Amino acid sequence: FRLALIQLHVSAVKSDNLQRACGLVREAAAKGAKLVALPECFNSPYGTQYFKEYAEKIPGESTQKLSEVAKECSIYLVGGRSIPEEDGGKLYNTCTVFGPDGALLAKHRKVHLFDINVPGKIQFKESETLSPGNSFSMFDTPYCKVGLGICYDMRFAEMAQIYGQKGCQLLIYPGAFNMTTGPAHWELLQRGRAVDNQLYVATVSPARDEKASYVAWGHSTVVNPWGEVIAKAGAEETVVYTDIDLKKLAEIRQQIPILSQKRCDLYGVEMKK
């Protein structure tokens, strides 16, 4: 099946972002994409100073638009970190997924908050404004089961391993690595998660805006279960297309059967809730 990743240029005007995103979703569907993903923070600039201002409840303006365009195009739509979600007085970094009938299939709240300090390069603390999610998020399609993470979640190998154990064959991480962590770890982490679990990994970033307060690395990418990069964007706004071949996944798992060779008598990773 065809997967499309929309590397969107994000402005400070929410309505413009929504209109542009929906237009590119329609374009992707017209080119045969059955599963389309938007980047982290596609409807607002990324930064702790913006989260409260742009926050919405779910359902709300942005998710309603996503539901409508998913139904119109009869696709599965991963809404990136569509919005800072407001719920019960707390803010969450939340990704929503809609099915071809417009129904909400999954809502993933970022589990691991991006609190880092690389002296002389970047300091960022999402926990100043956001609260963490407390659950794994998976959804079924006629093609395969898909697991969700958001950006920093990708650094935690245990999360991807749980998704693999639960039958996911594709992991999607809307993300916005920066100009420090992007060139160092963006592709490396994706290839690691893919090889470790013998599944496809897709990441979808905003396009790079050098004038933004937080500059995204871009380079939305798809990696196959062999660890090969099979599609990758540059820094500019674009739509990345790739065909996900589940027969290749099955072949790789048969050739190198690590999933059946794990020593569960010696070690294990489990989902607690």
Short descriptors:
273 residues, alpha/beta, Nitrilase/N-carbamoyl-D-aminoacid amidohydrolase, seven-stranded mixed sheet
Q: How does this structure look, described?
A:
- By secondary structure, this protein is an alpha/beta fold.
- It has one domain: Nitrilase/N-carbamoyl-D-aminoacid amidohydrolase (4-Layer Sandwich).
- It contains 7 helices and 15 strands.
- The strands form 3 sheets. Strands 1, 2, 3, 4, 5, 6 and 15 form a 7-stranded mixed β-sheet that branches. The protein has a 6-stranded mixed β-sheet with strand order 9-10-11-12-13-14, covered by helices on one side. A two-stranded antiparallel sheet has the order 7-8.
- Helix 1 runs parallel beside helix 3 and helix 4 runs parallel beside helix 5.
- It is globular, with a radius of gyration of 17 Å.
- It starts with a strand and ends in a 12-residue tail after the last helix.
- The relative contact order is 0.15.
Characterize this entry briefly.
This protein has helices at 14-30, 48-54, 61-73, 157-165, 181-197, 246-255, 258-261, and strands at 2-7, 35-37, 76-78, 83-87, 90-98, 104-109, 115-118, 122-125, 138-140, 145-148, 168-174, 200-204, 221-223, 229-232, 238-243. The protein has 273 residues and is an alpha/beta fold. Strands 1, 2, 3, 4, 5, 6 and 15 form a seven-stranded mixed sheet that branches. The protein has a six-stranded mixed sheet with strand order 9-10-11-12-13-14, with helices on one face.
